[in-house]
Specification:
- By secondary structure, the protein is of the alpha/beta class.
- Helices cover about 35% and strands about 15% of the residues.
- The chain is built from 14 helices and 15 strands.
- The protein has a 9-stranded mixed β-sheet. A 4-stranded antiparallel β-sheet has the order 2-3-4-15, sandwiched between helices. A two-stranded antiparallel ribbon has the order 1-5.
- Strand 7 (about 145-150), helix 5 and strand 8 (about 180-185) form a beta-alpha-beta unit.
- Helix 6 (about 190-200) packs across helix 8 and helix 9 (about 265-275) runs parallel beside helix 10 (about 305-320).
- Mean pLDDT is about 90; it is low at about 380-385 and about 455-460.
Length: about 450
């Protein structure tokens, strides 16, 4: 074949690991396809020098399929944005977040919410159901109906969940949709008995529960309103759920989240040791997230983005060495980064206000900020939402309004958090700063499993 093969070019959306192993392999990960290849250092050198005709035909084809090599004339950025916009237009999920309670048992020191002893009343619950019915009637493309239970603490609104769930499930049945729910909870009230009620009766299939480091760190940050610790209670709930023989086959997923800043990051490794000692990581997922601004200055205690990225690599290596398999590289793209980009998604709070973001309700700093409000549920009918904020998010990226315009991880990131960009805070995910280290860990894992496989063989990423 002629050396004219430069009808192809190297994609701008790539990460390439250092060469490792006796045979000098690199991992090449395409963020446009969320797929990786193992490539010999010699072959990769040919790619970099434009000697594409010298590559084995199978490798060149695999690189094209993985979007490591793309047509020379292709405007990749426009293609990524077009893909994201098409995914939004074809979105078949109706996602509604509901905060049944404005209260919370905890007074976490970084939380921006103002809690009150208030639950949704009957008129607001009726308004939520009516709003859902209206959306389902006009959304012919909907195939899945999902509820997110938020707060405050949603379990303090358990009475509302018991009232609303059968009616929400009935709406799904009427429209021939699948139905599921998820919940963000502090875990204080999540006893095994309540957990299995939520799963079996209310179809809550994903739970996000926070433990902020080892016991001492957690109990300094996440105490009850009257100053009592919460770590042991949450841990005992998790142990009880994992020990119940029903858990293995219930289909529900529990993720343990650790919010990390400069005050507790060292204790996170001790938390990991605790979870491993109780064999909880065999049952539950674990991840960390940097403490962020919640309409306050909480983000000022955080590690820098690079410090957090380095910390995360140490944590991932620790998980691997303990015999667990953390997700190192995304396997899917992120065309819809959050609910604010879904045309009909919204959160309704206990006061009947609706928002395009889960982090606005009950936060005094946003009380006068109308940008995130979609309307109010009224009597007898809710007020229709105005044109959605961030409806032009992908156009803003394409226009270069945010740095995502030139970022190599855009397809797997989606721009992360439009709200934070609007507030002048970079929300860039850690993988932007540690992707090569993650790839090296992935190669270590592959080597342990198989030995370093063959050149141009697809890696499990």
């Amino acid at each position: 074949m002629s050396t004219q093969t430069p009808s192809l070019k190297i994609s701008r959306y790539l990460a390439v690991s250092p060469a490792v192993g006796r045979r000098a392999f690199r991992m090449v990960y395409s963020t446009r396809s969320a797929r990786a290849l193992l490539v010999s250092d010699a072959d990769w050198s040919d790619v970099q020098q434009g000697h594409l005709s010298q590559l084995p035909a199978a490798l060149r084809q695999a690189m094209t399929e993985h979007k490591i090599l793309v047509p020379a004339e292709e405007d990749e950025r426009s293609q990524v944005i077009a893909y994201n916009k098409a995914a939004i237009a074809a979105d078949d999920l109706l996602y509604l977040a509901i905060a049944p309670s404005a209260n919370c048992q905890l007074g976490c020191d970084y939380c921006g919410q103002q809690h009150e002893n208030r639950r949704m009343d009957d008129s607001i619950m009726r308004g939520v159901l009516q709003r859902a019915q209206e959306k389902l009637k006009r959304r012919a493309c909907t195939r899945h109906f999902q509820i997110g239970w938020f707060g405050g603490e949603p379990l303090l609104g358990m009475a509302n969940i018991r009232i609303m769930t059968p009616q929400l499930q009935e709406l799904a049945r009427q429209h021939q949709l699948s139905y599921s729910a998820q919940m963000a909870t502090n875990g204080v009230a999540l006893t095994p008995r309540l957990f299995f009620e939520l799963v079996q009766q209310h179809q809550v299939m994903a739970f996000d529960i926070t433990l902020d480091g080892a016991q001492a760190d957690h109990d300094r940050r996440r105490v009850t309103k009257d100053g009592r610790p919460s770590f042991k209670r949450i841990l005992n709930n998790l142990k009880g759920i994992a020990a119940d023989p029903r858990f293995a086959d219930c289909g529900a997923r529990i993720s343990i989240r650790c919010n990390v800043d400069s005050r507790n990051h060292e204790g996170t490794l001790a938390l990991l040791d605790t979870l491993i000692a109780h064999d909880l990581l065999r049952h539950f997922q674990f991840y960390t997230a940097p403490v962020h601004s919640w309409g306050n200055d909480a983000h000022l205690t955080s590690l820098s983005q690079q410090q957090y990225a380095d910390f995360e690599v140490d944590l991932l290596a620790r998980l691997m060495n303990a015999g667990h398999a953390p997700r190192l590289l995304p396997k899917t793209l992120t065309p819809i980064v959050c609910m604010s980009l879904r045309p009909d998604a919204e959160l309704t709070d206990p006061y009947g206000e609706t928002f395009n973001c889960t982090e606005i309700s009950q936060v005094p700093a946003y009380k006068e900020v109308r940008f995130y409000r979609l309307g109010e549920l009224g009597q007898p009918a809710p007020v229709p939402p105005r044109e959605r904020p961030f409806g032009d998010w992908n156009d803003r990226i394409l226009a270069g309004d945010v740095p995502c315009h030139n970022c190599r991880i855009l397809p797997i990131c989606g721009g992360q958090c439009p709200k934070k960009w609007l507030e002048g805070i970079s929300p860039c995910p850690s993988i932007k700063h540690n992707i090569e280290s993650r790839m090296t860990l992935e190669m270590v894992r592959l080597n342990r499993q198989n030995g370093l496989i063959h050149s141009h063989e697809t890696a499990e990423a």
